Amino acid sequence: MNPSASPADTGWFLHDRFGLFIHWGIYSVAARHEWVKQRERITDEGYQKYFDHFYPDLYDPALWAREAKNAGMKYFVVTTKHHDGFCLWDSALTDYKATRTPWGKDVLRPMVDAFRREDLKVGFYHSLLDWHHPQFPVDPIHPQRDDLAYREAHKDRDVRLYAEYLHGQTRELLTQFGKVDVMWFDFSYSRRPYPWGRGKGKDDWQSEKLLAMVRELQPGVIVNDRLELQGDVKTPEEYQPRGWMEVNGQRVMWEACQTFNGSWGYYRDNLDWRAPDELIRTLVDTVSKGGNLLLNVGPNGRGEFEPRAIERLRAIGEWLRVHGRSIYGCTASELTPPPDARFTYNPQTNRLYLHLMAWPYKHVHLDGLAGRVEYAQLLNDASEIHMKVIDPRQEAETITPGGGRPDTLMLELPIQRPAVAVPVIELFLK
Ligand code: GLC
Q: Domains of the chain by range and CATH?
């Protein structure tokens, strides 16, 4: 939805740009993707061992919150319940929750408290699906989708009764944890084709009624686009949009949600980890297109962020410690950047940021900026960058660049690339 049209409090979201997604539950004990129950067609009985062995004895949400803060993240979104139906908080509506596991404690409340202490905004992911609830109809993506006897035995399930549970738990989350800044529902699939039966969507969830309740209980909350209603923010998942996302030709608020390695939940044997520098370039690219990045960590069954996640969070945090003002409060520029570069722009400070994804040899040429820049510096060390406007009538000579457009500004760069993941030049516009 266009930010100005949304009833939500979107100002902080558009300023802060960068958040932490957390996928944590009993699938973290299985340690092979959060869809393990579905992928391996595990029955409730077969899945119970992960409930019975949920004992995150090293869980310290203060450490999680500090890592997120130091990573430069400004909000977090945590899976209160994922598709397997397991709940992190002490819901009155089910026994399938952390307080009934051997751990015996609510793990959501201390997390919310810890992240608030580090001044991060609070977001709740809540799965619309529930592969454990007795009234959630078996459908073509259910773990027991191929078990004909199971499907027959459970064919009278009433999705309206499940919707009551879904709404009831949403009410718990939005009334028991103080101010909630983001409500992140996941996901609707009624428009996807299946060999039999159908996926579920807004009629099953009673999405209009649910959204009205959410807005009534938390008036400023940002709601995503997965109720099969437009919502306040579009949520491209595990891909990088080519530009500012649009709905019906209108630019909308958008947030890319991505993983470090292709799995949302902890996946011990996964080797597909993205490089820290690429993650930083993705953050830059996202903001250069007016978007937010929600980057995921899947804590393990002991309640810890694994070293591979911490390494990446700290690399991003170090880059943001020095370059944060080229991200926070910034958005897309209408100017076209040179090759292998991105622009971000802060309209409040009227500063343009040139992110150099590849370090050019000696010069970079900025079309349209001649006469518009008062001063230029490398952001990492505030060292001056000299600027030149070349007379287009001057032919390029043996050792002097020439030609080009009259409105081109040439920046003179050191040969040595700054020792940072993405060098940034801060341009103070007139
Ligand atoms: C997809 C996955 C789900 C994950 C979500 C995050 O919907 O099914 O496991 O939580 O993406 O956006």
A: 3-326 (3.20.20.80), 341-429 (2.60.40.1180)
Q: How far apart are CA 36 and CA 50, in angstroms?
A: 11
The tens digit of pLDDT for each residue in 15-50 reads 999 999 999 999 999 999 999 999 999 999 999 999
> Measured in angstroms, how far is the CA atom of residue 399 from the centroid of ligand 1?
55
Distance CA 193, CA 201 (A): 13
Probe residue for ligand 1, chosen from 33, 83, 187, 259 as the CB with the greatest number of ligand atoms within 8 Å: 187
| Ligand 1 in reach of 257 Cβ (< 6 A) | yes
Average pLDDT over residues 336-350: 98
pLDDT confidence of residue 103: 98
pLDDT band at 3 (very low <50, low <70, confident <90, very high): low
Q: State the closest ligand 1 atom to the C-alpha of 184, by its place in the atom list counted from 1.
A: 12
Whether the full predicted model's pTM is greater than 0.85, yes or no, is yes
Nearest-atom number in ligand 1 for the CA of 34 is 9
Distance 81 CA to ligand 1 centre (A): 12
Residue type present at position 62: A
Beta-sheet strands, E only, within 60-203: 75-81, 121-127, 182-186
